[in-house]
Amino acid sequence: MVSMSTQHRFRRPASLSPAFAEQVPGDPSLDPAERNAMAHSAAAALLRDASERPDPEVIERIVRLVRDEGIDLIAEMWSVCAPVSLPGAMWRLFTVHTMVQSNPHLIAQSFAAGREVAPVLDVLAGVEVPPGPGEVSATIDQILRGAFTGDFAIALERAAALCLVVAFGEARLEAAELLDVPSARGGGGAPSLEQQRANLVRIGESLQHSARQWRAGQLH
Asked: How far apart (Å, rounded) are the C-alpha atoms in residues 167 and 61?
């Protein structure tokens, strides 16, 4: 399992609006349309997406903000964007990364079980060998720090594959009564494992769709 170094660990700033307002023009708490535009600009800036043509000064401010304050405040804006959109895809990558870092044992256990089952490969959008949680997490780490230089569509597909394999493997383990992680089960308002699996499948499907849209030049 690959974990982030202390230098690159995403930290949650004390507050959203003041910190972001100092770095990027406009206050995201005032105007939903401006907030949405900023969410798209931030996603494009971290990817250095030339098709979006973000202002170079904004790119530098956003990358510096992520480096100094963490990704959480930008991710909060992404969370309300359409699932199949550039910021929506970034939010789902952020969610996958958080999932892997928060419960590496369960993810590794479920991934290993899911990868053993051949039929699951039929739904992995051409990903012949599903990459492991550590590899996917490391790639997402690069994306969220503005340091990614690879094929974004492939990164999306691999994250989608991870979600689907983990969901499939977790269901298999639970059915065989081999999944013994009390902290991961429902209770106290937390989603049940069944709900978590459904969320993983939705995230995986959205990431697959986003990968197709990115290749077609239509992910905005």
From this structure: 37
The dihedral through the CA atoms of 122, 128, 134, 139 has a sign that is negative
pLDDT tens, N- to C-terminus, the chain (220 residues)? 323 333 333 433 323 333 343 444 444 454 778 788 888 888 988 887 645 555 677 667 777 777 777 788 788 889 989 999 999 999 999 999 999 998 898 899 999 888 877 555 555 545 556 678 999 999 999 999 888 889 999 999 999 989 988 998 988 888 877 765 544 444 455 567 788 889 999 999 999 999 999 999 999 8
Sequence-distant (6+) residues with CB within 8 A of 167 are: 110, 114, 197, 200, 201, 204
| 190 strand-pairing partners | 187
C-beta atoms surrounding 119 within 10 Å:
7
Helices 152-175 and 133-144 meet at what angle, rounded to 10? 140
Q: Can you tell me the distance from the alpha carbon of 72 to that of 74, in angstroms, rounded to the nearest whole number? A: 5
Whether the Cβ atoms of residue 35 and residue 77 lie closer than 8 Å to each other: yes
Q: Which SS3 state, helix, strand or coil, does residue 31 take? A: coil
pTM value is: 0.79
Q: Which two tokens stand for residue 60?
A: 């530098």
Find all residues with CB under 8 Å of 38, minimum gap 6, and list them: 24, 26, 28, 77
Contact of 157 with 164, CB cutoff 8 Å: no
| CA neighbor of 179 nearest in space, from 162, 197, 164 | 197
